[in-house]
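Tip: read the tokens left to right.
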């Protein structure tokens, strides 16, 4: 029997790519989200923390595979919302899946669940959870992972957790918006840290591929050599970039749209320790004024620490191979952003 998919969070960046790929290959797929942005795939509106609604949608659709990638935006949501959606919402989805005999559950976590601010170089899935999470988002992702993994095998449910690292691509307004603002305000010459920290950036198309591969592999018998059931997998482009090489790559692509606007200048390098001091100062000032800080110690940490991961396990067990390069996805991201920007100006 063909699977019936429900993409939870299917109106978001990653969820949209997953749902569209499933739809385009002819699968029976629906979306559950709090907001509808597209009308080409059957849509169900609702809060995943509403257990009755979740149960109703899964039963009505006859879902056999849940792909759960719903989460508040990592940089803007309130802490309580992270606990509500990432933990309580995941519990509700798992509970309904177990009760209804859903066969498969794919969960989108984050590579950040093992990051404590220190360098991570070529780490694999044996690396333990961090004991010192940098924010509530990562804390709740750890709790959600545990819920999903503990449910594996319960009433026949097969679960798997994917940990993508720094997703970007057309449709993403977070990374590009910040880099665009920096470009337009002429601050592209300011560099924090020595730019010796390799960082994973992952094309959203590749992350969507990994989710579908994982769902497909859950249909196969359990393999002792390359298990998928109850496993976690890092997902990257397998092509780490120095942090500021990536940002400069985006700015160089913007130069093509604004010839002559940016004058190349020698980088003004701010040491990491000084960046952390400035971040603390900005945080204090923002607290006094009752607004969000323009720079934080969290941002500095992410800009300066090495974070790249070994994806041999995903290659072996899922058959995952990144099909879109970082450079090509940068091209597509800037092209999409500029077309969006121009259309909004009209």
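Filled-in amino acids:
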């Amino acid at each position: 029997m063909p699977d019936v998919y429900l993409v939870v969070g299917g109106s978001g960046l990653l969820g949209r790519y997953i749902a569209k790929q499933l739809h385009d290959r002819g699968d029976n797929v629906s979306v559950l989200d709090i907001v509808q942005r597209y009308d080409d795939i059957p849509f169900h509106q609702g809060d995943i923390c509403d257990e009755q609604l979740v149960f109703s949608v899964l039963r009505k659709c006859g879902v056999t595979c849940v792909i759960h990638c719903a989460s508040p935006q990592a940089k803007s949501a309130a802490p309580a919302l992270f606990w509500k959606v990432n933990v309580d919402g995941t519990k509700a989805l798992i509970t309904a899946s177990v009760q209804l005999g859903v066969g498969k559950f794919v969960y989108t976590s984050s590579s950040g669940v093992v990051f404590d601010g220190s360098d991570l170089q070529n780490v694999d899935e044996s690396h333990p959870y961090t004991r010192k999470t940098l924010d509530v988002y990562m804390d709740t992702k750890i709790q959600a992972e545990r819920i999903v993994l503990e449910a594996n095998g319960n009433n026949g449910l097969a679960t798997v957790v994917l940990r993508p690292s720094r997703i970007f691509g057309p449709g993403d307004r977070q990374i590009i918006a910040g880099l665009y603002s920096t470009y337009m305000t002429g601050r592209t010459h300011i560099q924090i840290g020595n730019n010796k920290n390799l960082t994973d950036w992952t094309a959203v198309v590749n992350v969507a591929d990994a989710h579908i591969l994982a769902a497909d592999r859950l249909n196969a018998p359990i393999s002792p050599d390359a298990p998928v059931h109850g496993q976690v997998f890092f997902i990257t482009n397998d092509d780490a970039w120095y942090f500021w090489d990536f940002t400069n790559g985006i700015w160089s692509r913007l130069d093509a749209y604004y010839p002559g606007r940016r004058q190349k200048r020698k980088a003004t390098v701010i040491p990491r320790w000084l960046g952390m001091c400035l971040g603390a100062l900005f945080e204090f000032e923002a607290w006094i004024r009752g607004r969000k800080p323009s720079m934080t110690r969290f941002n500095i940490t992410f800009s300066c620490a090495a974070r790249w991961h070994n994806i041999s396990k995903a290659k072996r067990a899922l058959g995952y191979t990144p099909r879109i390069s970082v450079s090509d996805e940068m091209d597509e991201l800037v092209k999409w952003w500029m077309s969006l920007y121009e259309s909004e100006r009209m």
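The chain has a mean pLDDT of 93. The radius of gyration is 21 Å.
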